[in-house]
Design brief:
This protein has 18 helices and 18 strands. By secondary structure, it is of the alpha/beta class. It has four domains: 130 residues, Rossmann fold; 165 residues, P-loop containing nucleotide triphosphate hydrolases (Rossmann fold); 69 residues, Helicase, Ruva Protein, domain 3, CATH 1.10.8; 43 residues, Orthogonal Bundle (Arc Repressor Mutant, subunit A), CATH 1.10.10. The strands form six sheets. A five-stranded parallel β-sheet has the order 2-1-3-6-7, sandwiched between helices. β6, α4 and β7 form a beta-alpha-beta unit.
Amino acid sequence: MARVLVVDDERSMREYLEILLRKMGHVATTVADCGSALRLAENQEFDLVLSDLRIGKESGIEVLRAFKTAQPDTEVVMITAFATMENAIEAMKLGAYDYVTKPFKNEELWLIVQKALEKHQLQRENESLRIQLSSRGRVAGMVGDSAAMKEVYSLIEKVAQSRTTVLVVGESGVGKELVARAVHSKGPRATGPFVPINCGAIPEGLVESELFGHVRGAFTGATVDRPGLFKAAGGGTIFLDEVGELPLPTQVKLLRAIQDRRVKPVGGNRDIEVDARIIAATNRDLAEEVKEGRFREDLYYRLNVIQVFVPPLRRRREDILPLAEHFIAVHSSEKGCAHLSMSKEASSYLQSYDWPGNVRELENAIERAVTLTEGAIIQPDMLPPQIRGVQPVPEGEVTLPPGGIDLQAYLDALERRFLQMALVRAGGVKKEAAKLLGLTFRSMRYRLAKQGLSSPRSNDGDDGDE
């Protein structure tokens, strides 16, 4: 069963095609004008579009253009009583699957619809196969096929089989715990527990008890003996996230646990043997922390036997859209809604943003977009403001000088700067620069002329009323 859109200004033709498509087992949506079709192109997915070439005074070519921009995989068949070779060539150049002239036989249209849908299905299957093939060599739970991530995957495969201590480094939100879990799951300890602990989230007075355990009466509230996380991890893996946050006294005991494979519970008199593999992670520069006396040098070298660096998103931009698609699928499924698509403009915003919060920030942005989107396609306004460049000025960041300010001159200078930055980012293409600033092309052209950055009418191929 396919989703088919019919665009025709003649009611009788819309009803006829709807009946025919239903007999074929498809779901048909019909509209009588280009405006309705263009709105659907942005908000609802279709497998096939059947559009008249002349829709009142409008052209079905606009429908074709809209769908090939918003939904490139959707097949479009043009139907018209005014067949000319020029029309056919234009439609095919713009990506139409085929061109049918009125009057047509049911069998003729039936065959074209069937072939167009077969092509659409084949494209989807090929894309699915491409994703499967590209994911070979990936680590389960991790998304990304950039050269940088392939190095990470390769290193994971190499270190997983040993019990060597691993230090995972990278900025916050890059997925350091995913790397640790992958090392655990691919090694001989996979059947044992994976025990994560955020060293920075535990009060300093309790961190030793959490790690090494305590005996009854060791401190107020210690009413029973409690094994620490090292003991709980057994023959599995203990993951020390944000290890750079550990206080120096605890670092001494951690060093002993790594060297001797023994820990002493808080308040206890005897050591307990432990067998857990240790994987640590940090977003700090531990070498610098050692220089500053905040981290023990001997512990640093014990932890940093093998280092896995997880690059930030801004250094592997080719992974941004695959990650976004992954999170769209995850959160669409969680919310029980149909799988959404990302508009071309929204995708452009994602790829242009630097993602200081990395993968975690990207997932949060996608979850927000999936929650707010009412149609089938995520538009830019569903993304967080900072990604669209609409950043509120933090309170207290702007001050009024004692002698006052020439507000208009200040705003003019600010406008000029943003216009220049937008043009640079858009490679000099004014229409694209206008989109970056949330302006119409007409407004962009006026502001450029006002600032002396171009004439009101230029011949650079960008102009045209919009």
